[in-house]
Amino acid sequence: MANEDWVDENGESVALDDLEPGPHLLSKNLDEISAGGKAICFTSIDTEFTLYADDEPIYDYHPSVPLRFGRSYGMYVHTVAIPDSTGKISIQVEPVFTSGSADFDRIMIADSGWYMLEHFKRNMFSFGMSTATLMLGAFFLVIGLTNAIMMRSAGIDFISFGITCMLIGFIGYNDTLMLQLLTGHPEIIRVVTYVCLIFLPFPALSFFAGSTGYGQSRMVSGMLLICLVDFAAQVLLTHKGFTDYYYLVKVSHIIIIVSISMAGWFVFKAVRKGMIRTELLRSITWGLAACAAGAMIDLVRFHFFHSRGSSWFTRLGVFVFTIVIGIFLIQEQTQALKRKHMEGQMLVSEITEALAKMIDMKDTYTNGHSARVAKYTAMLSKELGYDDDTLEKFYRIALLHDVGKIGIPGSVLNKPGKLTDEEYALIKSHTTMGYEALKDISIMPELAIGAQAHHERPDGKGYPNGLSASEIPRVAQIIAVADCFDAMYSDRPYRKQMEFDKAVSIIKDVSGTQLTPDVVEAF
User: Fold this and answer.
1) Rounded mean pLDDT of 32-40?
2) Is the pTM for the entire model greater than 0.90?
3) How many CB atoms within 10 Å of residue 364?
4) Higher per-residue pLDDT: 223 or 328
5) Phi, psi of 492, deg, nearest 5
6) Can you tell me the distance from the alpha carbon of 380 to that of 377, in angstroms, rounded to the nearest whole number?
7) CB count, 10 Å around CB of 10?
8) Is the same domain home to 503 and 386?
């Protein structure tokens, strides 16, 4: 109701949000409105005014805007308390731009606290979207500045994308009026918004150019030059009073449209020449379509429907783009981790196979022992219910369980007769030497466990640390049974291969003392 039943200087009824161009003196009778303790609340857009209560001035808004900021202050929210017993309120309005109309929005006579609360609630989603866009931009910018390897791997220019998101996020703040209220300087927010619009085309185009393999194109550097010229021209013309950012924003809009068209051209060329991966192309195409659609809708709304939230759909398009790019990055990182894992597994496989061959070359009498123990360990692990990944890991650990023997002299290692106490102590040291050799292999630190603990015993009489029962690592418990069986069921320097049944019988006999019972049962 506060918007209606206003009377102009000619006595004609008008609506406050639909005025003819030029200044006006408008009045409204409050006799039929309960205005006691309330305020007249509204948003003004590029309009100066003085408010009267029964012909007495109660509020004047003629902000002094520095010439370098242009003629207008942009948008601001007002809540003016209406004095008690006021019968009529009047407002003398004067558009900042003489060719335009005085512009007001959301006019109400209401409690000022309620009105401001409603304003914040109404704009909270848009404010949150702008904040999220700004933070996402900062996130991508940090990634681009600190992780060049990831940026090259993904094929995305995170720096340009981050700057683009930050610019669009700040532009969105202008629509919500939150920063205008918090700072009390709507003219500064207005000018910064126009500057963001001026420079937005360059990082946006740079992102698409970099992602499609045209990062060094002269079109990108040309767009930077255009943005700089546009900025210098707008500042100079506004400062000299020839025109205003308000009128020149159309130039920025045209440049944005040109930038979107050039980005589409880069994508088209990349597709024709096969310069972009299918997954990235799909993400960029959908993202570009969302941003272009959002920007075009906002431009139409701004120029033809005088919308207040002029960048809402653009921000929505950027959100869609960010989600699409985020999904691509997650998939990219997942694939990279899988590749890294496979490369790591291949490296471990190659290392263990090479070292196992070296061990058997050293201990010629038991050639093949390492491979057999590894095979038996995998078989036992499967019988015990372990999954395929664990089987593979235990196999690799078992393959190197005797790696310390490389450090034992061949004369001792292959001695056919009985060993002296000193020689036996030297043989036993292969567990510690094996551990020291393998402990620093970061790609698979578990390799050292089997080498160190495969001669530990459940009764605590093993070596090198005298571990007992559950203190012994599980893989070492399994290797111990496999190692014991192969030692008996193959030729050794000091004896011939045992009969199968006898070897099995001995393993059963030492269950619980030398070997772990459930592993023996599985064996």
Assistant:
1) 81
2) no
3) 11
4) 223
5) -125, 160
6) 5
7) 8
8) yes
With beta carbons less than 8 A apart as the criterion, state whether 276 and 155 touch: yes
**CATH number of the structural domain spanning residue 511:** 1.10.3210.10
Q: Do 449 and 473 contact (CB within 8 A), yes or no?
A: yes
Confirm if 90 and 27 have CB atoms less than 8 A apart: yes
Per-residue pLDDT of 63-75, as tens digits, reads: 988 888 888 888 9
458-to-192, 394, 449, 467, 523 alpha-carbon distances in Å: 75, 20, 16, 7, 16
Q: Between β-strands 24-29 and 88-95, what pairing exists: parallel, antiparallel or unpaired? A: antiparallel
Hey, which residues does 74 pair with through a beta bridge? Answer: none
Q: Which residues contact 341 (CB under 8 A, 6 or more apart)?
A: none
Q: Which residue has the tokens 């939230």?
A: 309
Phi (first) and psi of residue 402, to 5 degrees: -105, 20
What span, in angstroms and rounded, lies between the C-alpha atoms of 362 and 370? Answer: 12
DSSP codes, 304-333: HS--SSTTHHHHHHHHHHHHHHHHHHHHHH
d(CA 394, CA 381): 8
Inter-residue contact 160 to 206 (CB < 8 Å): yes
CA gap 310, 226 in Å, rounded:
23
The residues facing 495 across adjacent strands are 492
Name the average pLDDT for the chain.
84
Q: How many domains does the chain have?
A: 3
SS3 call for 273: helix
Specify the range with the lowest mean pLDDT, choosing from 190-199, 409-418, 471-480.
409-418
Check which CATH number belongs to the domain holding 88 and give it. 2.60.120.1060
Q: Who's near 348: CB < 8 A, 6+ residues apart?
A: 396, 443, 444, 447
Pair (459, 502) in one structural domain: yes
What residue type is 286 in one-letter code? W
Name the residue range of residue 72's domain.
Answer: 6-110
Report the candidate in 448, 411, 410, 444 with the shortest Cα–Cα distance to residue 432.
Answer: 448
